[in-house]
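Justification of computing resources. Each target in the renewal requires a structure prediction run like the one illustrated here; the chain below, 152 residues long, is used simply to show the kind of job we budget for.
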Amino acid sequence: MEEHHDGLVISLPVGYYLIKRILVDNGSSANIIVLDIVKHMNIEEKDIINKSTMLVGFSGETKKTIGEIKLPTYVKGINLQVKFLVIDTLSSYNIIIGRPWIHEMKAIPSTYHQIIKFSTKWGIQEIKGDPKEAKECYKIALKATFAEKESA
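Resulting structure tokens:
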């Protein structure tokens, strides 16, 4: 395997839709979904529980959520109701799956191997990462960061 530094980006069925560009982030203490994706899933804003939370990023920046929503996720025979914090922001990722989902799945994500493994009653299952999507998300994030610096 050639050396890379890609994040682990997967696709999963969430709330009856196949959602691409999901970042698996064991550094995140929450599962996060972007409001635009919620709207694309034909979920109305009134279905979002009005419970705002303050998220703090790596460099100390803060972002207020607009609420939370529970959505089903389906993974290799495992159905979970997952609480997502909803944010209204532009992001190269549609969803960030954090430790709450990783722990509930008893999953082991590996960015190096670009895979998540977890145990089920049918044996060890896996979800492979999508390195092409990971690179694309990284490029989008870099462009956005560069654009912000240009406008500052």
